[in-house]
Amino acid sequence: MSEKKMNSSRRHHLKSLILSIAQKWLDQEKVEDVAAKETYMRDNCPAPTMSGDQHALMEYLKKMNERIERIDEERYDVLSKVQKADKEIEDLNIKVVDLRGVKKPALRKVRMSADTMLKALLGSKHTVNMDLRANLKQVKKEVKEEPQEAAGDWRKNIEDKADRKKMFETS
Asked: CA-based Rg of the chain, rounded to a whole angstrom?
């Protein structure tokens, strides 16, 4: 198509044409399926002969039962093969996904306070206040005041420390 957009009436007309063609194809497939079933039944299932005595009918019923059992066994075998193949396909799909890895989406930074997050999670009924600073206790800081020594003779202070040093050396 060109760069011009198709108007809605033309698009609707083309869509209806496509749908009508698809409907014709479906009808034709149904007719072909019915014909295929009839030919299969004609080829594989001969018309029953009801003439004869009871012994002949019993033999005919035994043959039909044998055919039914054989067909059921074939159907079961085919069904088990299909289920096994489906399971293998599913396992291979899982392996492909594992090998490919799961792409994690990029996380976006969301600016949301704790209060609004709780309201979003719990609903508007719950009004939980997340102002944790208001819940903290006020602790008064006690300042220990050490009596400062008067700026006295510094030599005396050094002598006191020297005496302590001697005390540790003697022991």
From this structure: 48
